[in-house]
Amino acid sequence: MSRPLHGGNLAWAATIAGCPEFLITDFSASINPLGPPKSAIAAIQSHLATLKHYPDPNYTQLRSVLAQEHHLSPDWIIPGNGVAELLTWAARDLAQKDMTCLLSPAFGDYTRALKAFNGEIQYYPLDIHQGNWEIKRQNLQQCGLLLNNPHNPTGHLFSLTQILPYLDFGLVVVDEAFMDFIPPPQQQSLIDRIQDYPNLIILRSLTKFYSLPGLRIGYAIAHPDVLKRWQQWRDPWPINSLADIVAQTVIQDREFQELTWKWLLPAKEKLFQDLSKIPNFQPILGKANYLLVKTSIPSSQLQKKLLIQNRILIRDCLSFAELGEDYFRIAIRSSEENERLFIALTEALN
């Protein structure tokens, strides 16, 4: 079984650890450990009968709920089979430009999606530890820009002041998959600006914050003309009926949202402080629900050792060419699990 490019591959991890998948503690996928919400489970249980019917091909009710959440018309929203599906259509549009600019290191799926449509790519370096970046190009209208905010894998949150000058690009796609982990007053989302920029596309995930990666659900916000074009490209019924109803439910679950925001900050700061005590590690404190950690020990060796000795899976950064063996990424989990990781990392160095 080949080394995975993404986090969360428990089948691969269990093979290395020599144990069943359910015994692996997964720090490699940045999924909210508090979920799935009880409201999601209740919604599934009460809508099992919908499995014998096709979903609404227009997802009318889901688009309406999302639109109300963001104070938009439903025409500006399209649900998808996770952000991954919607990224494909965004990449198809970006590939029509002379060039798409990416901040480096970049999430590997961006390059994959763009290359699938023979898109030209230009990488611009991000200051990994400070989060500073700059793109200087001429003929911006002929170019596209694809970035994520908060950034993956560093967790840096780019301010609106940083991003707004770049909305002069011909097409701008902003992946806000981890924005929900930030309390609303601190978020730097462009959703409120979407109607001012017909060249702007925003991608949102519901699987990470609400711990629903198995259901595959996300949505895009863009000008209705863009979304009508995407609708012509995609397969019918990309979202199953249970994902549809669960998305409608969790987006309105204020109790779970508040619980997550209350949990994340102290848990992340505690783990950051603990890792900072280990001489071989230099964690970067970002705004998302994960930490990127610089390591003096090759990350793949550390990953293997943790799997065999502790049944703990961390995310190596080999799929980020700029990071390689020098970094690993870990999700923030429960206090008990974070403490267990800290002890395991300390022991792995001895």
TrEMBL record:
The keyword RNA-binding does not apply. It comes from the Bacteria. Residues 25-341 form the Aminotransferase class I/classII large domain. Coiled coil: none annotated. Pathway: Cofactor biosynthesis; adenosylcobalamin biosynthesis. InterPro entries: Aminotransferase_I/II_large (IPR004839), CobD (IPR005860), NHTrfase_class1_PyrdxlP-BS (IPR004838), PyrdxlP-dep_Trfase (IPR015424), PyrdxlP-dep_Trfase_major (IPR015421), PyrdxlP-dep_Trfase_small (IPR015422). Keywords: Cobalamin biosynthesis, Lyase, Pyridoxal phosphate. Its cofactor is pyridoxal 5'-phosphate. GO terms for molecular function: pyridoxal phosphate binding; threonine-phosphate decarboxylase activity. Its EC number is 4.1.1.81. One of its GO terms (biological process) is cobalamin biosynthetic process. It is an enzyme of class 4 (lyase). The keyword Metal-binding does not apply. SUPFAM superfamilies: PLP-dependent transferases (SSF53383). It catalyses: O-phospho-L-threonine + H(+) = (R)-1-aminopropan-2-yl phosphate + CO2. It holds the Pfam family Aminotran_1_2. NCBIfam families: L_thr_O3P_dcar. Decarboxylates L-threonine-O-3-phosphate to yield (R)-1-amino-2-propanol O-2-phosphate, the precursor for the linkage between the nucleotide loop and the corrin ring in cobalamin. This is threonine-phosphate decarboxylase. It comes from Aphanothece hegewaldii CCALA 016.
